[in-house]
Specification:
Layout (H helix, E strand, L loop, with lengths): L2 H14 L12 H27 L5 H33 L7 H19 L3 H14 L4 H13 L3 H8 L7 H13 L4 H8 L10 H13 L3 H4 L2 H13 L4 H29 L1
Length: about 280
């Protein structure tokens, strides 16, 4: 068995063991942002509520402080303990809970049939099942890599390169297939992008895949290509998911907490001015 055949067999073995994994997974850092968000609003409501209660403890206004402390301390505390206690447990012991459960279970069922097809040398049937899974979950790069590995084994490098064009970490042999795909399209970035995004939904693409798409998009310079709907669609997609300013990310991700803080601050300012 040659070196390339060994690499290809290893790629097939590796991808078949991880087909059910979504392209994007949960990380510890993903919990820090919402944890900070809820903890900040809880601390702010507690501080403002306590000040109002201490200042107006003998009036009806003091009840506002009690409500704010209950919201910030009791209800926010329950939310924090429930959500992040569960999330921390899942992160430490049940990481697969964060994967797309329906997608994972479906792929695992079909994967067992693919394994049986391969054991009984029904190559065409196995490929059909992989194609079907990829149509259902076009953003799953593990599926793309598995199908591409089988195509490379049959010397279908161009078709394999099309599947792998947006893969975040292609191997050396996969890079060769991507090069053949680009070469077959005259290294035209618009044609490469147009074919690479065919069927891709986008919501679950990793940041690395989006950056690859961004590089292709930026390389397109012809006005005729920029007038095509594919260029405009990718432009809008990247602006919404990758190229937003920090302020837009802040507003989109924390608008509810910003509203809470604004309400609490307004109550504090009004009562402080009246004190």
């Amino acid at each position: 068995m040659g070196k390339n055949d060994q690499q290809l067999s290893e790629a097939i073995r590796r991808t078949q063991s991880s087909l059910a994994n979504p392209t994007k997974g949960i990380r510890g850092a993903d919990l820090l942002s919402p944890l900070f968000e809820h903890a900040l609003t809880a601390a702010f409501f507690l501080a403002v509520g306590y000040w109002i209660f201490r200042t107006y403890d003998e009036s009806v206004v003091g009840f506002v402080g009690v409500v704010m402390m209950l919201w910030g301390g009791l209800f926010k505390g329950i939310i924090l303990f429930g959500i992040y206690g569960f999330a921390l447990f899942a992160l430490l012991f049940k990481r697969d809970w964060f994967a797309h459960v329906a997608e994972r279970n479906h792929i695992r069922k079909v994967e067992s049939r693919i394994t049986k097809d391969l054991e009984e040398e029904r190559e065409a049937s196995a490929d059909d099942r992989l194609h079907g899974l990829l149509c259902a979950y076009p953003d799953n790069m593990h599926l793309r890599r598995s199908l591409a590995a089988r195509m490379i084994k049959r010397d279908e490098l161009i078709a394999a390169g099309k599947l792998l064009a947006l893969h975040p970490s292609p191997t050396r042999i996969e890079l060769a297939a991507i090069h053949m795909f680009c070469k077959s399209n005259g290294h035209d970035p618009f044609q490469i992008m147009r074919k690479a995004i065919k069927g891709v939904g986008g919501p679950h693409l990793s940041t690395e895949s989006r950056l690859k798409l961004h590089d292709l998009h930026r390389a397109i310079t012809r006005e005729a290509d920029k007038n095509a709907w594919q260029w405009r669609a990718v432009d809008q997609y990247l602006n919404n998911t990758l190229l937003k300013t920090k302020w837009r990310y802040l507003v989109d991700d924390y608008r509810h907490s910003m509203l809470e803080l604004l309400i609490a601050a307004a109550i504090f300012v009004v009562l402080w001015a009246a004190a």
